[in-house]
Design a protein that fits this description.
The protein is of the alpha/beta class. It is built from 13 helices and 13 strands. Helix 2 runs parallel beside helix 12, helix 4 runs parallel beside helix 10 and helix 5 packs across helix 9. About 45% of the residues are buried. Bound molecules: pyridoxal-5'-phosphate.
Amino acid sequence: MGIFDKAERIRKLPPYLFKEIDKKKAEVKASGIDIIDLGIGDPDLPTPPHIVEAMKRAVEDPSTHRYPAYDGMREFKAAVAGWYKRRFGVDLNPDDEVIILIGSKEGIAHFPLAFINPGDVSLIPTPGYPVYHNATLFAGGGAYFMPLLESNHFVPDLDMIPAEVAKKARIMFINYPNNPTAAVAELDYFERVVAFAKENDILVCHDAAYTEIAYDSYRPHSFLEARGAKDVAIEFHSLSKTYNMTGWRVGFAVGNKKAVEGLGAIKSNVDSGVFGAVQIAGIQALSGDQSCVDEMREIYTRRRDLMVGGLRAAGFELEIPKASFYLWVRAPEGYSSAQLATRLLEKGVVVTPGNGFGEPGEGYFRIALTQKRERLEQAIGRIKAAGL
Ligand SMILES: *Cc1c(COP(=O)(O)O)cnc(C)c1O
């Protein structure tokens, strides 16, 4: 081995499928074409001012300058429990059923290290957030992919998982509202997942990053609302999308205390917790006035309606999403995801090719509603001009 030969776990990572489109994007940008980026799931809106103010005050307090408790401030964990009770009617003990994370991605990425031995299997949705698979690989585990298909409303068909795979599996990842398909799942589905997990001794990891980004009167469920869920599940949540705080790096996991404890055992050996001032801002976010969340939902609703209308007028087929800030759109006949994304990129519109999230995403592309109205209107004009 050469000195800088990478470890197996890095070499075994799946190919990064957005490489081509990233390269193309850089080329188009360099040629001076104005680019409207509908590719990234990162809110363009600022963090609400009352949260920023709480952070400013907390930074002045020297007690926040020292190492925080590795699993989170008691007051922040209590604020998480209070928010879960108000929002979902779910009871949580802040002392052993809540852990604070450096963003939910960090917790999801570390979680398999606590429960996957080399050779173990995770059940992973595809198309999906790449961290579930890559984190499983880092722990030495393997993946069984559960396809998310339109014919199943983009939820895994539990009956299609072979019995011997189910018996071997240790973790099942699911994510609703879903990135990238924008699908939602109802409580009866979550209850079937709980039964499946109990029958096969599987730990369910629900990624709930988008529960607050929902339209009209629809409000997504927490997985922990399902009967018996806390016996088998941990749920990952985040302030990133709800309060436009992606840059702050703060999230949390809640649920089964042994799952929470396992994650804590890994984290206490890797990081030393979230900056106290950020946690104090987090308390303000969860416990303070929630009208900022209503305002955000209204903004995304207007953008969704504008974009769905524009795309349909341009001849595209798509569902009107009930939640998330994504649109999952079918590419027209004769276009692969990559060809479609390339064509739109030449017109100055960045979308994400669906196959980048996994093979069953082929034939789709994802649009993120993370640009201002005027930019979305311009994007619609350019998409129409692409003449697909
Ligand atoms: C944005 C997102 C997250 C949240 O990530 P943070 O690390 O909390 O910023 C988690 N899961 C999915 C599917 C996401 O899209």
